[in-house]
Write a structure and sequence with these properties.
The protein is α/β, with parallel strands linked by helices. It folds into 2 domains: 128 residues, Vaccinia Virus protein VP39 (Rossmann fold); 36 residues, no CATH class. The chain contains 5 helices and 8 strands, in the order ααβαβαββαββββ. The chain has a 5-stranded parallel β-sheet. A 3-stranded antiparallel β-sheet has the order 6-7-8, with no helix packed on it. The longest helix is centred in the first third of the chain and has 15 residues. The termini are close together.
Length: 175
């Protein structure tokens, strides 16, 4: 999926469940606790869904994202670097580096995913923490012989995943 200007401008409308305070507040609480007052770095910062409220709680936050339109949607509230979070550096000495909402799966090779862990380690202060959130594929929901799972259907968009069980790859589609 390309995180272009249209997606950036419509992100909250497309995924309103991610902005529900019942979802957002506990995540920000946890990240603030793990940052322990120190600076935080979000890999795949996007529109700042977590970074902005974390910043508003007094945590200095920086972001890295490959999508300039997603970063632009933050309107300068969070400093961010455009680039590949598996390789781009944005300083060091962070108490917390975090990567959420299955964003690591946007990197489709094991080498790129391993590079994320190396890059996180390079950004962290001694004793710092790397938090990563990822999903477990819904393979049990697939009927025998099927390889597609519909994970969302709203008047605004449809999302489904195609699984290549042999190669252990899932590709998400949104329309």
């Amino acid at each position: 999926m390309a995180f272009d200007r249209w997606v950036a401008e419509n992100y909250e409308r497309l995924w309103p469940e991610l902005f529900d305070p019942a979802v957002l507040d506990p995540a920000v609480d946890l990240l603030a606790e793990l940052a322990a007052g120190g600076p935080a770095l979000e890999f795949g910062v996007g529109t700042g869904r977590l970074a902005i409220p974390l910043h508003r709680r007094g945590i200095a936050v920086h972001g890295i994202d490959v999508s300039a339109p997603m970063i632009a949607a933050m309107r300068g509230e969070i400093p961010a670097t455009v680039g590949d979070f598996a390789r781009v550096r944005a300083g060091d000495g962070y108490s917390l580096v975090y990567l959420v909402r299955n964003t690591i799966t946007n990197l489709t090779t094991q080498d790129d995913q391993v590079a994320v862990f190396r890059n996180a380690a390079a950004h962290l202060a001694p004793g710092g923490r790397f938090v990563i959130e990822n999903y477990v594929p819904e393979l049990r929901r697939l009927p025998p012989g099927e390889n597609t799972y519909l994970f969302t259907a709203t008047p605004e968009h449809v999302g489904y995943e195609e699984y290549d069980l042999t190669r252990q790859i899932a590709v998400s589609h949104r329309r």
